[in-house]
Specification:
The chain is α+β, with helices and mostly antiparallel strands. The chain folds into three domains: 146 residues, no CATH class; 103 residues, no CATH class; 127 residues, hypothetical protein PF0899 fold (2-Layer Sandwich), CATH 3.30.2320. Helices cover 18% and strands 28% of the residues. Strands 10-11-14-13-12-15 form a six-stranded antiparallel sheet, with no helix packed on it. A six-stranded mixed sheet has the order 18-26-22-19-21-20. A hairpin with a 2-residue loop joins strand 16 and strand 17. Helix 1 packs across helix 4. The longest helix has 29 residues. The protein is globular, with a radius of gyration of 25 Å. About 2% of the residues have low confidence.
């Protein structure tokens, strides 16, 4: 057999996979719908211009029987917003023998032998970015530790005190939480409405930070597993117990790197959609207090189940606040989606493929007409079960210097190389991007939803 050199492996990888874009997962709705594009870079930042108010220099001329003066122009406000993208690196290690044996055959054999490894690597990177697109620098981060009040109903159980509840697992056994924590099981229960399975499932071994209300780390934990039915996180150590729902005494969980390091003001992740839609101050150098188009519509569902009434209320607010005239893409947790799939069936939209003689059950998405047009509701496993996002996709920008790739723009260096102190190949992928909205006032966030409760 011919000798397989390091250069042979690298060149085979380049030849077989090219830029690797054919392997990037399309499973993540925001990545798929909000296409990546090159932005307008100025120095180390990207600059976008946004119209924040209408032209108001009008002149009413009446029946124009005589010569009239024209009022001076009063230009609408156009502001430049700047953003610094957030870079991310994903690293994998593959044994020497695996790569060298694969590289010793044909290109097809190499592709067949390595495709699943490469797909898993890129899927993992894309998954991280999708989670951060939603909840990067969110005030809630990836979820609050529960301190829900006495009497709160959750998954068939009732809280006996703040943060105190006994839940029944799928195997019939019970698990007891006191102040949000089960010390015996090294487990934490997230607040009702704060859990999304897509943020936690299959992340065993991930470093998770527990932070206080200031963003400071109170404990570093390793995720052991999660119960996606009950919203439980299992760790290698006992988390710090909660003494409040919000503010001092409350605790949140975040991915490694999202915490605020000493001397810093934010985490290392990009600003996500949740942070954009909950902003009431200055973001991307523009003030939501000064410009109404920079402030989104937040609807409190008051612990009720999201339904058509809640949707129509949100659309009406979006229309009043920002002139919402296009159909929204709405993203909700799969559990919430299943709860509404039989609601308001009279407003379902049938396309040309509908046949009255054929019955098909189930939905990949639900389409509802509102005053703004056709709205499509999709399940998204990374959306927390107490929230619904309504986005006018044409208003969103996803840009930066690099989408997920195995190279860094401007550097003539591959991110695939043999390790010096380990018998393996290092595979690294890089991304550097941001997400931004042109008109937050045309977007809607529904909060405090409860798919187990009565309709809104």
């Amino acid at each position: 057999m011919a000798q397989v050199t390091n250069n042979t492996v690298v060149q085979t990888l380049k030849r077989v996979y090219g830029d690797f874009h054919n392997l990037i997962s399309e499973d993540y709705p925001l990545q798929k719908l909000i296409k990546f594009s090159e932005g307008n870079k100025v120095g180390d930042r990207f600059v976008e211009a946004f119209a924040l108010s209408s032209e108001t220099g009008w002149t009413l001329l009446g029946d124009i029987d005589d010569v009239q003066n024209i009022n001076p122009a009063i230009s609408g406000v156009v502001k430049q917003s700047s953003v610094k993208p957030s870079a991310a690196l994903m690293q994998s290690v593959i044994p020497f023998t695996y790569m060298s044996r694969a590289a010793g055959g044909t290109d097809k054999a190499f592709f067949d032998a390595t495709r699943h490894l490469m797909e898993n690597h890129l899927r993992s990177h894309s998954r991280l970015l999708e989670a951060i697109r939603l909840y990067g620098q969110s005030p809630d981060l990836m979820g609050y530790l529960t301190y829900a009040p006495t009497g709160t109903s959750y998954r068939g159980a009732i809280y006996s005190g703040p943060g105190d509840v006994v839940l029944t697992k799928g195997d019939g056994t019970t698990i007891t939480f006191v102040d949000g924590v089960s010390a015996a099981n090294k487990a934490a229960l997230l607040q009702p409405g704060q859990y999304a399975s897509g943020l936690w499932v299959a992340l065993e071994g991930a470093i998770i930070k527990q932070v206080d209300s200031t963003g400071a780390v109170v404990k570093t934990l390793t995720l052991i597993g999660t119960d996606s039915n009950l919203g439980i996180l299992y760790f290698d150590d006992v988390p710090v117990v909660a003494t409040a729902q919000r503010g001092a005494g409350s605790y949140r969980f975040c991915y490694n790197g999202q915490e605020i390091a000493p001397g810093a003001t934010t985490g290392k992740d990009m600003i996500g959609i949740h942070r954009i839609l909950t902003n009431t101050g200055t973001l991307f150098d523009i003030s939501a207090a000064q410009y109404s188009l920079w402030k989104s519509n937040v609807i409190d569902c008051q612990g009720r189940r999201w339904n058509i009434k809640a949707m129509q209320l949100g659309i009406a607010q979006g229309d009043n606040a920002g002139g919402l005239t296009g159909g929204l893409e709405l993203f909700m947790n799969p559990l919430a989606f299943s709860a509404i799939s039989n609601d308001e069936t009279s407003l379902r939209n049938f396309d040309a493929s509908y046949k009255s003689s054929t019955a098909q059950n189930g939905f990949e998405s639900i389409e509802w007409f509102g005053s703004n047009g056709l709205n499509r509701i999709r399940p998204h496993r990374m959306v927390k079960d107490g929230e619904v996002f309504g986005l006018l996709i044409e208003d969103w920008i996803r840009s930066g210097s690099a989408d997920v790739a195995f190279k860094i723009p401007g550097m003539d260096k591959d991110l695939i190389f043999p390790l010096e102190q380990q018998t393996g190949w290092c595979i690294r992928s890089f991304s550097d991007q941001y997400i931004m909205c042109r008109a937050p006032a045309r977007q809607i966030l529904w909060t405090n939803c409860n798919f187990e409760a009565a309709p809104f």
